[in-house]
TrEMBL record:
Positions with a binding annotation for Mg(2+): D8, E58
Cofactor(s) needed by this chain: Mg(2+)
Gene3D superfamilies per the UniProt record, alphabetical: 4'-phosphopantetheinyl transferase domain
Subcellular compartments: Cytoplasm
Documented EC number(s): 2.7.8.7
Record's keyword terms, sorted: Cytoplasm, Fatty acid biosynthesis, Fatty acid metabolism, Lipid biosynthesis, Lipid metabolism, Magnesium, Metal-binding, Transferase
Catalyzed reaction equations: apo-[ACP] + CoA = holo-[ACP] + adenosine 3',5'-bisphosphate + H(+)
Family, per entry: Belongs to the P-Pant transferase superfamily. AcpS family.
GO MF assignments: holo-[acyl-carrier-protein] synthase activity; magnesium ion binding
Biological source species: Bombilactobacillus mellifer
NCBIfam families: acpS, pantethn_trn
GO cellular component, one term: cytoplasm
UniProt domain 4'-phosphopantetheinyl transferase: residue ranges: 4-110
Gene behind this protein: acpS
Protein name as catalogued: Holo-[acyl-carrier-protein] synthase
Length: 120
């Protein structure tokens, strides 16, 4: 049973500016496992990754109906499978999470679908 659907669109340059303005921004948004992956990238790819995880966590919070605030960025960890598909590996929702992340040079869009077994 579908519990919720969330979508988010983020401007990559806005996320980059936030990270430059506040050195703790990266640590606020990324879990330690995500930060390890982020550190392996540089330049535009690093900014895409950060913006993608930010946007995905925003979309998750919308699907769950809480928004960021009641839900912390640290409550979710999104890592790629060996095939490159993003997968939520740490989360607090008691069901399945489906996620999609897509980039252009300027934007990242994410969609999250939350599914329960029907026994909410």
């Amino acid at each position: 049973m579908i519990y919720g659907i969330g979508i988010d669109l983020a401007e990559i340059s806005r996320i980059e500016r936030a990270a430059q303005k506040n050195p703790r921004f990266v640590d606020k948004v990324l879990t330690p496992a995500e930060k390890t992956v982020w550190q392996q990238y540089s330049g535009a790819r690093q900014q895409e990754y950060l913006a993608g995880r930010f946007s995905a966590k925003e979309a998750f919070s919308k699907a769950w109906g809480t928004g960021i605030g009641k839900l912390s960025f640290q409550d979710l960890s999104i890592l790629d499978t060996a095939q490159g598909r993003p997968q939520v590996v740490q989360q607090i929702f008691p069901g399945q999470v489906f996620i999609s992340i897509s980039h252009t040079q300027q934007y990242v869009v994410t969609q999250v679908l939350l599914e329960t077994n029907g026994k909410e």
